[in-house]
Amino acid sequence: MEIALELIQQLAKDERVMWVVGGGNVVSENNSKGIKEPEYSEGYLTVEADNWHFHVPLDKVTGIQFVEAESHGDLLSYYVRFSGDNEETMLRG
Predict the structure, then answer these.
(1) pLDDT of residue 92
(2) What is the DSSP string of 9-73?
(3) Is 5 helix (H, G, I), strand (E, B) or coil?
């Protein structure tokens, strides 16, 4: 999914982005301190920062949503949600 590649590359240019990996019972929340240019190889996009990294199988991304959500009371959050089979959240940024 070429648009997923382009969106993640654009999000990685902003060190204010919080990356949330997963969406089930366990998620990992990661800041963008020291984020590097994502690298694409053999179907996977690797996103890496100072003390974390993750791999996204781009062929498994079946949906992309732009979301506005309330969090922590009246605070609004804006993020891009990447989902896979059965609308499972894979990644938010």
Answers:
(1) 97
(2) HHHTT-TTPPEEE--SS--EEE--TT----EEETTEEEEE-SS-EEEEEGGG--EEEEEEEEETT
(3) helix
Average pLDDT, the chain: 94
Global confidence as pTM: 0.90
Contact between residue 15 and residue 32 where contact means Cβ atoms under 8 Å apart:
yes
The whole-number pLDDT of residue 9 equals: 96
**CA-wise closest residue to 36 among 12, 58, 56, 57:** 12
pLDDT tens digits, one per residue of 3-53: 999 999 999 999 999 999 998 889 999 999 999 999 999 999 999 999 999
Distance in angstroms (rounded) separating the CA atoms of residues 24 and 78: 19
Domain boundaries, the chain: 2-92
pLDDT at 17: 96
Please state which CATH number belongs to domain 2-92. Answer: 3.40.1570.20
